[in-house]
């Protein structure tokens, strides 16, 4: 009985297990069928599914479609979004707008300061340079009576002044043979398109002349004042002097043609040439806005704009003088020229503002950078007044902005002497009073600029750099010290270490470990940035330069370090998607 009961129970359990397994299998098959049906239905449009369920009823299909369209429209009308979810992005966009609004004010501050710097260098040619030349010539004449007190007949600055005076006298005598009236009628007979092309060519040629002309003048000054004990490595003072005279004369002729073309544009009946020449300024926006600009590049362009604006003011002054002469100095004609003058100046200012605003926007440059530019220009002015100054201020402005006052001053003297007739003692008294007024203006302008520049330098924390020696002196001292320490601390078992120059011209020991004693005694001198560097404002790269010099590593030795990100870091792609290297 027990065996039969146990066998019966075992069979029942087996049957129950089989039933459970069958039910599980059926459930799985139903699930797979439902998933297959859903996949098939996903590939079929919703309208076909509605037709299949309702047997192809059209009324119900229209109601459901209308309901879905209403729901879509309602969703589009009532959906919302939150700008605060991307707060950083919109804050950055707002700051860009504020930067663009600040650009006109900051730019005009820089332009005004740069204008008075150029005016100071320009007035120097008319006021202080003749007096300095007279003093230098008097020193030469009185030397036989007083005897030679030193090894030099004249100081280097006096030699440069005398050379400038001789260049002005020779070029003025050559300019007297150039007929301005003939040049005016020759240019006026050309067509408008030719004049437009000529004016563009003159602008390009003026920039090229300014770039190469300052090098010619610097070569002349250094050749004339170079110490005699050095080995001669030049062609002589006279060839350099002739090249300088030729350059100043040709550059003055070029500016005269440019002023004559502008005068023709003012006197044209339909003002079409003047309109075309003004539109040329807006073409400048296209050529500069969509390019990659960093802080140094923007500084260079700002200096070029300052020089261009000041040159345009002098050209407009020449045009007004020539026109007033033709109308017998009738003051009523000045009001006829006034609207055109204002239009030219306004277009120049508007183009500069738009250009700088979009350049700073596209390159993520802050408007505070123009304060650094003012401090850099102020540093040039203050450093030229120091005892260890190695250049004249007018030459410093010429190198920084590309503004060379000699050709422009020569042309203005030529136009004034040909336009104003001096007759009688009263006329000479007026000229003397005018000259005294120019000297007064020059002195007052220099005093105000010097005080303002000291404030800018102090705000930029650049006072210490004013007392640094010139870079050549620093580099020579550092080289001699490194050379001496290299020979003192090398042992017979240790080969001399190879030296590699740094960016500042200092030879630093590298490639081999240095003894502890040498590390204590050898402290390289780092040349500070001076007026010849591109930007004299403090930068974050100064810390890297000091670390490189103290550790004796340059370039490849510090590649493993993560470089500091510049605050003015910009995107490598322009707005058009073109790569700029």
UniProtKB/TrEMBL annotation:
InterPro entries given in the database record: Tatp1
One Pfam family named in its UniProt record: DUF747
Predominant location category: membrane
Family named by the database record: Belongs to the TAPT1 family.
Annotated region (Disordered), positions in chain: 1-60, 468-514, 527-551
Stretches that traverse the bilayer: 110-127, 166-187, 241-266, 403-420, 432-457
A Gene Ontology cellular-component term: endoplasmic reticulum membrane
Cellular localisation: Membrane
Protein name (database record): Transmembrane anterior posterior transformation protein 1-like protein
Membrane topology: Multi-pass membrane protein
Compositionally biased spans, kind Polar residues: 490-500
Ranges of compositional bias, category Basic and acidic residues: 10-52
A biological process from GO: positive regulation of cilium assembly
Record's compositionally biased regions (Basic residues): 480-489
Keywords: Chondrogenesis, Membrane, Osteogenesis, Transmembrane, Transmembrane helix
């Amino acid at each position: 009985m027990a065996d039969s009961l146990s066998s019966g129970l075992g069979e029942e359990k087996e049957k129950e297990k089989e039933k459970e397994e069958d039910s599980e299998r059926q459930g799985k098959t139903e699930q797979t069928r439902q998933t297959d049906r859903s996949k098939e239905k996903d590939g079929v449009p919703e309208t076909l599914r509605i037709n299949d369920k309702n047997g192809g009823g059209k009324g119900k299909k229209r109601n459901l479609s209308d309901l879905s369209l209403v729901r879509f429209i309602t969703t589009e009308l009532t959906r919302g979004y939150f700008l605060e979810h991307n707060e950083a992005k919109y804050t950055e966009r707002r700051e860009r707008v504020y930067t663009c609004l600040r650009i006109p004010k900051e730019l005009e501050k820089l332009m005004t300061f740069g204008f008075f710097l150029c005016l100071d260098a320009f007035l120097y040619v008319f006021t202080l340079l003749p007096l300095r030349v007279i003093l230098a010539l008097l020193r030469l004449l009185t030397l036989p009576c007083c005897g030679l007190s030193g090894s030099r007949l004249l100081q280097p600055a006096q030699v440069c002044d005398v050379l400038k005076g001789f260049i002005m006298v020779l070029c003025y005598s050559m300019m007297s043979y150039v007929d301005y009236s003939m040049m005016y009628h020759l240019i006026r007979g050309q067509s408008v398109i030719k004049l437009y092309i000529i004016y563009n060519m003159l602008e390009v040629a003026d920039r090229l002349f300014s770039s190469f002309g300052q090098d010619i003048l610097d070569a002349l000054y250094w050749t004339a004042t170079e110490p005699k004990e050095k080995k001669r490595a030049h062609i002589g003072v006279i060839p350099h002097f002739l090249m300088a005279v030729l350059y100043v004369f040709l550059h003055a002729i070029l500016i005269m043609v440019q002023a004559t073309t502008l005068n023709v544009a003012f006197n044209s009946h339909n003002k079409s040439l003047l309109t075309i020449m003004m539109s040329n300024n807006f073409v400048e926006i296209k050529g500069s806005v969509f390019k990659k600009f960093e802080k140094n590049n923007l500084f260079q362009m700002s200096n070029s704009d300052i020089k261009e604006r000041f040159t345009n003011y002098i050209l407009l002054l020449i045009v007004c003088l020539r026109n007033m002469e033709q109308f017998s100095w009738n003051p009523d004609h000045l009001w006829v020229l006034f609207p055109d003058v204002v239009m030219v100046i306004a277009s120049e200012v508007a183009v500069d503002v738009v250009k700088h605003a979009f350049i700073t926007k596209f390159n993520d440059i802050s408007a505070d950078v123009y304060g650094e530019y003012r401090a850099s220009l102020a540093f040039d002015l203050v450093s030229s007044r120091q005892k260890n100054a190695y250049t004249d201020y007018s030459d410093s402005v010429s190198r920084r902005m590309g503004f060379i006052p000699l050709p422009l001053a020569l042309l203005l003297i030529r136009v004034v002497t040909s336009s104003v007739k001096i007759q009688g003692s009263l006329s000479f008294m007026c000229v003397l009073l005018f000259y005294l007024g120019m000297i007064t203006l020059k002195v007052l302008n220099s005093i105000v600029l010097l005080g303002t520049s000291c404030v800018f330098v102090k705000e930029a924390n650049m006072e210490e750099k004013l007392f640094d020696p010139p870079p050549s002196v620093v580099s020579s001292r550092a080289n001699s010290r490194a050379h001496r320490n290299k020979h003192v601390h090398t042992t017979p078992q240790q080969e001399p270490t190879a030296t590699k120059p740094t960016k500042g011209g200092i030879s630093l020991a590298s490639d081999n470990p240095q003894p502890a004693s040498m590390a204590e005694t050898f402290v390289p001198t780092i040349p500070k940035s001076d007026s010849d560097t591109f930007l004299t404002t403090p930068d974050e790269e100064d810390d890297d330069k000091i670390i490189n010099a103290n550790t004796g590593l340059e370039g490849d030795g510090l590649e493993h370090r993560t470089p500091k990100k510049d605050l003015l870091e910009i995107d490598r792609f322009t707005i058009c998607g073109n790569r700029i290297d």
